[in-house]
Amino acid sequence: MSQVTPTQIPIPIPFRQPKDIECWGHRGASAHLPENTLASFRAAIKEGCDGIESDVHATSDGVILMFHDPTLDRTTTGKGLIKNQPWKGVIEHVRTTKEPIQPIPLFEELIALLMEPENRHVTLNIDCKMQNDPEKLFPEMSRIISKYPNHSTLLSPRLILGLWHPLFIPPSMKYLPNCTRYHIGFSLPIIREYFWDHCSGFSLAFSALMNSTGQAFLNECREKGKEVTVWTVNHELEMKTAIGWGVKAVLTDRVGRFVELKNEIIDDPSKLNITGLSKLTFPWSSWRYYTLAHVITRSLVGMYLKAHGQMYITPIHNPSDDNDNDEQIDSFTPSTGGSANSTIRRMSESLSISPEFLLQKNPE
């Protein structure tokens, strides 16, 4: 039997007080600036965020963009799939339709922003979209990160890889071992089956925690040393609720308002309370909070994930593990892909959607 080292023993995470809960700008300060642009990122930092959440897609010539949708259509003057078009001569000329008009930023430009001396406290939560090939995406990200001296201590610890699909786990460990891994999602069963042993945290839709099952999961994560963040929290009552949960971070488009509210609560803890009629009606105020919505969403998300690849983790071989299998990645039986999955995959690659759209009025 191998000896259990201290690193294998889960270290419980204390319940965070309001002052310790971080604000992460969702696509920057996207409530009032074009999402996923350098202007939005800089504004979020200026407004007091502790971290930035953004998304990555790779172009046909291998350039990594900070962009949410698989297509350019929804937010820019461009058209079509990003992965089918080059940066050079094409996407480099695309601009946002929302003012102030901005170019699409590159991953290396955002990393440069984070490495400016005044921004070295900022975390970057990178949503690794499933339309990417992780065997191409992660090596290029690693190349960019490794250009910086002392990147393993000054940069990588601030980078969180947000993984939707289990097929992204082995490549992320192979190419970006110094970066933190979180699963992004809605489904607690999927977390337990595929991500629990391989991620140090989970970025969950706010609604997934709005029942007793979600709260029990949150408590278990805290006991087992797993971080939890919630998205996308823009309503003030949801902000108060998320702060009251004691999570690591809250992702919001409204960075300025969240920081303001958090400071108000620090100064006067009674402002955390939801009072009056809202105290009774808030838990029932959105269809997203209902158990039936959770069941339907989990089912649809499961179909979406399977459409992007078989739901299993391919083991990676590390010679140092030959005599100790404690750290071995489990292998799961592949599920069978059918015509329905193929249809969903084609839809997901041609439309401006991702799993978050299931819970939002606008694409998340």
UniProtKB/TrEMBL annotation:
InterPro entries: GP_PDE_dom, PLC-like_Pdiesterase_TIM-brl. Residues 21-262 form the GP-PDE domain. Residues 316-345 are annotated as: Disordered. GO terms for biological process: lipid metabolic process. PROSITE patterns: GP_PDE. Signal peptide: none annotated. SUPFAM superfamilies: PLC-like phosphodiesterases (SSF51695). GO terms for molecular function: phosphoric diester hydrolase activity. CDD domains: GDPD_YPL206cp_fungi. Residues 330-345 have a biased composition (Polar residues). This is GP-PDE domain-containing protein. It comes from Kwoniella europaea PYCC6329. The lineage of its organism: Eukaryota, Fungi, Dikarya, Basidiomycota, Agaricomycotina.
